[in-house]
Amino acid sequence: MVTSMLNIIRRVCCRQAYHHQLSRLATASTQTRGLMAGPSMRPQEGQGVTPRRAVLYVPGSDERKLAKLSGLTVDCAVMDCEDGVAANRKDVARETIRKTLGSLHLPTVGDLAVRINAVDSGLAEDDLKEVLQAERLPDTLMIPKVESVSHLQWLADKLSAHFGPNPPSSPFKLVIFVESALGLLRLANICEEGQRLSRTTPFFTLEGVVFGSDDFCADIGATRTPEATELLYARQKVVTIAKAYRLQAIDLVHIDYKDLDSLEKQSLEGARMGFTGKQVIHPNQIPIVQKAFSPSPERMEWAKALIEAFEEHQHSGKGAFTFRDSMIDMPLVLQARNILKMADVTKDKPQ
Amino acid sequence: MVTSMLNIIRRVCCRQAYHHQLSRLATASTQTRGLMAGPSMRPQEGQGVTPRRAVLYVPGSDERKLAKLSGLTVDCAVMDCEDGVAANRKDVARETIRKTLGSLHLPTVGDLAVRINAVDSGLAEDDLKEVLQAERLPDTLMIPKVESVSHLQWLADKLSAHFGPNPPSSPFKLVIFVESALGLLRLANICEEGQRLSRTTPFFTLEGVVFGSDDFCADIGATRTPEATELLYARQKVVTIAKAYRLQAIDLVHIDYKDLDSLEKQSLEGARMGFTGKQVIHPNQIPIVQKAFSPSPERMEWAKALIEAFEEHQHSGKGAFTFRDSMIDMPLVLQARNILKMADVTKDKPQ
Amino acid sequence: MVTSMLNIIRRVCCRQAYHHQLSRLATASTQTRGLMAGPSMRPQEGQGVTPRRAVLYVPGSDERKLAKLSGLTVDCAVMDCEDGVAANRKDVARETIRKTLGSLHLPTVGDLAVRINAVDSGLAEDDLKEVLQAERLPDTLMIPKVESVSHLQWLADKLSAHFGPNPPSSPFKLVIFVESALGLLRLANICEEGQRLSRTTPFFTLEGVVFGSDDFCADIGATRTPEATELLYARQKVVTIAKAYRLQAIDLVHIDYKDLDSLEKQSLEGARMGFTGKQVIHPNQIPIVQKAFSPSPERMEWAKALIEAFEEHQHSGKGAFTFRDSMIDMPLVLQARNILKMADVTKDKPQ
């Protein structure tokens, strides 16, 4: 079906929209857009990209909780060296993570990540050294509190020093955190540099941006409300920049882990804004979040019917047309395609 | 009345506010602000600028719909080569537009525009060539999906190659579209370059920015809701940048063309945000939109009374004063002046 | 208590968070972050910084209102040369301010400021000259309508010319206004330059940014609503940039000075967004605003209990922990600390 859709798209779309589609469907497109200072084309939400609808943190110092991961089905699990670990347990955390990486079998965890401490913390180098000694390396590295392009250069330098002339067969996936006003101000530059290093070094591929809402609130002196109106600018700016660079955008954590109704509401809102996933801190949050960031049956029915109608009208040479009382042209067709693509990527994944 | 108001303003305002007013009233001011990398002063919503409260798209491939334009009264009508035209009808569209431009008499259309395909589409050059052969050229050119300053340079180059040493007697009016995360990220640079080319070439004058919300949503993976909360950041950023460069800002399209109540609500909201107009896709939407983007009788009464009160207080040497329970100073006077100016510009135009 | 808290923080936090705290507690830290183009570390809401929860304007031309200041208790009072003064009373205003500065005893005004006219107005130089002749200089200078880094250089140049080789023993505190689309677009650059000049000249220290909402609305053609949805982008962008540069952020004025319920609601909303204070235009607004920008007893109780729980869990080596049904880690601890700090700074100040 993908091939026949591609043929249709090739015929009907202007070249740019077609390239747009292609790049989203591509497994590992690395061509650039040919624009000044332009982000390179990267696949997004397409095949070859790891879905991260739910991103679950587990404190690296808690052996019991880490062991429980083997019974969990989740898109992304994060062994945490940072905020979830007390300062006097940092050594324990990184050692426990190293051992657990080598011993734990996690067939139902899609993406296994380690979050090291912030580059400015003085702890990051020790974290990284220990993790890189593990028998099995994590799929993804997560860097919190990125506030400068130099943080990404630091990572490239450390990995280069570690691997020497024998880089890993496939680069680490990299996910960075924006958690301060300064980080948000510089996010576009940081993503730009992250993509440049992804192209020019063999060590990592920047795949996503996480919005660390609670650190951000502390930084700007804001107070969280249930509606999160105070974070609207920051959240939508994070989505816009992430998507401009074809990166995943991971939304804020819902810290009241007992209120699942409110979690669902917030998750659906994040998905509507364009976030591709959400941070979770309790296993009970996983299924609600993963469902919210998957297309609903109603949306899939709408998308399929719209694309069918679109194809009919294209064959008969009509452009814009009416569908269920709305005027449809290419942008809505692209939205419908996004929905079906996302459904395809996550169809074998547990919700 | 304009002259006496100007005299009053000259006396009462600080020099900057006075220049501010002057530039808005001026027919074709081109002086720069004398600031580093500053946008040049351009008229806005003032005399000499084409109002574009409603911007109506008509598919260029649909001869019957184009012919109907002669019976419509609308601020701006757009003959469309882009999203409203099926891929296998692009040739037909540009030919039909060329012929219609030469033959159709449109006394009740304020501004006649052609939207060519995106510069990256591979179709734009053919569109432009055909349109430039028309017996009567359009007033305005519209360029969709602008994501780079190079798109504007492309247009200047093509027009220069076409016209050679004999540029058109008056430059085309130019309206550009922001329809992607990347376009939004670069919008300030794009407007800056658009203004530079408007000053340094005889081919076009950048007058407005359209927010293409549905393409934008497809690009960032967002889902449209009736309240459009998911687009708040993008819409308000578009308004801010457009106004910083003294450009019109044209708001999103309301695709459910049967729900006129909801259209009115969304139009009024856009006007309150600072948008100067809105895209429409059905003739029934025109009067509602043009009314929403015109000052209401209540607002005009408020503006007139406030300015009268202001003049009295100025003559008696009082600064800030109380008017209907609110403390009034220059900013509110400027707002009142904007309202009367807009009313003046659109007073002979149909709603 | 501060010392013991610092010791605990030193032990438990990663180095960055610790520096973060330190800089906020420091009286006059001037070290830079060591990042490219990075704002320097400055104290924020901490000891040594003047609270400006309410910022009250008094027209400089109104001797009677200026005299009434001696009976008012307010964080910050502004003798205004700008929007509150009629154009034919500018001379009177600056003379009256000079005399009043020398004669008035204001023990219950925390910070005494003068707002001169905008640098582009042609009036600013005369304002400044007159004010600098006063027997007692104001604590703070306020510059409205800043739209360019050159406005700050102008101020440094004028002060340098006035003081020659004998700069004032302590620099003026400087508060700037963002009141236009262009000013908002350039705000980060302006703050950057303000901090650079604060470090490299002995004349002023940039402490805050005021959002001039009504001039901003006039500039972008927006219409104010009670909910101020149309200003969400601008307000949250101002907070984000101000906080990235460790500056105070002063929120919009509530012009309907009789509606105190609505004032309270808007003040609390601004405080939740991260604003540190609000402009007021009537003495009756002061206590409501100062209370809204102070931590509530409930928030202080929450903050104290959370920090106690945090310390216990740190001693026992646990990282993230559950507190009142929420998962707590460092970001929430930092928020709790902010609340207690703010309470400490304002505890001897009148509400």
TrEMBL record, chains A, B, C:
Its EC number is 2.3.3.9, 3.1.2.30, 4.1.3.25. Substrate binds at R115, E179. This is Citramalyl-CoA lyase, mitochondrial. The keyword Transport does not apply. The keyword Nucleotidyltransferase does not apply. GO terms for cellular component: mitochondrion. Homotrimer. Its main location: mitochondrion. It catalyses: propanoyl-CoA + glyoxylate + H2O = 3-methylmalate + CoA + H(+); (3S)-citramalyl-CoA = pyruvate + acetyl-CoA; glyoxylate + acetyl-CoA + H2O = (S)-malate + CoA + H(+).
